[in-house]
Amino acid sequence: MLEVVFSDSAAGTMAVAIGHKGFLGGATSVIISDGTVSKEEIEKFQHQAEERERSGWENAIPLEGNRKDIVNLPLALSVGNISEAGICLERESALSLLLSILPDMASEIVTELLNTSRKNYATLLEKAQNGEPIRVWVGREPDDVCGLYWLLEQLRPIGFEKLDVTIVELPMWETRPDGCIVQYNGWGEVEPYHLGRMASLGKKLPTNYLRSLANRWRELQQENSPLRAVINGKLVSVSETLYDTFILRELDTLDDEFKESVLVGQVLGKNQLGIGDGWIALRVEQFIKEGLLVPITTPAPNAPIYHRMLKKIK
């Protein structure tokens, strides 16, 4: 079975999950907010975290399969031009735009993402044509939902009636045995030992539903807006200014001079928009062009552009 995901983080989680049936061990971190916790308490929290992981693996339902069957398509399809089929120059342009926040590494990362996607895409088409079942892991992020719709449109020539597609949806929330409520923003945040159990909750998609999702992608292609977002559970075309309200609201909470990274972090941390730092940083760049903000320091070499100080212009 092909395991389709739409981000490097999700692919990494799945690579750990497949084939592992016991406690992995490794580094454990504890975040302390006020600095008042003793060394003994920190060690206690670390021990609890390790025991939780050990118990998780001991009670896990194994995720059967082969790592070679992980199909990662990190194409950021919620951003940019989508008028063309397949993986074309428009995707390179969109990825280059998002990664322009990392000027010293953007070209290398874009090349890697495109090479990964194109290789996996070719494998997917070949195996799907031969009747290989496909399981798509979809979160609530726009990139995941766009990825699903896009994928089905690419598979249309095979014939929807010939496809065997199962979808595994990221749960809104889960209750741990200790009563703690956990909310995930994406598949990359899920502990690997949970994937086997979650895979058992997958639903096979009927032919007409596959067709309807692919048809919706065609509609989005015709609209070809700068962004796509999930609003009230529906994937829709939206303006590039969609997230500006969230940015401006957090901007109001900051001093006249502030770290741009703090602004980006607050927007993403408080609002769980399902997008990455790239688009938020690009909108801040637009605010600078419009004269709302001005940089007063420059980022260090190899650092994202938002690792600098900004000043509000009154």
From TrEMBL:
Show where the DUF3658 domain sits: 202-293
Against Pfam families, the record matches this protein to: DUF1835 (PF08874), DUF3658 (PF12395)
Q: Per its UniProt record, what InterPro entries does this chain match?
A: DUF1835, DUF3658
**Residues annotated as domain DUF1835:** 61-158
**What is the protein's name according to its record?**
DUF1835 domain-containing protein
